[in-house]
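User: We ran a pulldown and think these components assemble together. Before we commit to crystallization trials, I'd like a predicted model of the whole complex to look at. Sequences follow.
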Amino acid sequence: MSTVLFVKANNRSQEESVTVKLYSTFLANYKAANPSDEVIELDLYNEQLPYMSAAMINGIFKVAQGMETTAEEQQLADIANRHIDQFIAADKVVFAFPLWNMTVPAVLHTYIDYLNQAGKSFKYTAQGVVGLLEGKQVMLLNARGGDYSQAHMQAYEMAVNYVARNMQQFGITDVTTIVIEGHNQYPDQSAAIVERGLESAVAASKQF
Ligand SMILES: Cc1cc2nc3c(=O)[nH]c(=O)nc-3n(C[C@H](O)[C@H](O)[C@H](O)COP(=O)(O)O)c2cc1C
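Assistant: Here's a predicted model for the assembly, 208 residues in total across the polymer chains.
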């Protein structure tokens, strides 16, 4: 039995959002294929996610060092640590997120800020950063209205790249990505593009 964390970074309705369609399709099919797994849904828009700040940085540092904190530092460190501990405890993590303004929604950026803690998710060495979370499996589910598949567009895509590079920094090498793209750029093919993407999600949910 695995513990699987589903992280959702879009609170639009399923009718409006391709990301949410991807999320729901993958989740339902994963659950059907793995009925004994523990599935935890984390809807980032339902969470209090304070921005990384001086008080949070100091709180995380002081808690890690066993130092005394202020009430505010402790409260902020507790929020970040609750999220990183949940992430570390999961055997598998599924992220669902749109491309918004070339990057991820701010809630996902903040959540990933919490996951970046030296000594927990990675460590610094003379050879560079070394990840500490090997062995975890990650699925990235993303939708983007434009077509970023051509080389000249790839530098403008800072959502999948951003999340994937963070997973790499944590030492997670088993990362699968499903992207639905171009459904806004090619309106005449929109329905078929989305349909094909959802079929890929069904197939991937059975392998994950
Ligand atoms: C606020 C906002 C910003 C967006 N920015 C981009 C963008 O930078 N590039 C792009 O190709 N599509 C962009 N889109 C379109 C989305 O990528 C597209 O709707 C996709 O399906 C993901 O969003 P959804 O899950 O809400 O449908 C944007 C959409 C919104 C609502």
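The mean pLDDT is 98. That may be worth checking against your pulldown data before setting up trials.

User: Thanks, that helps.
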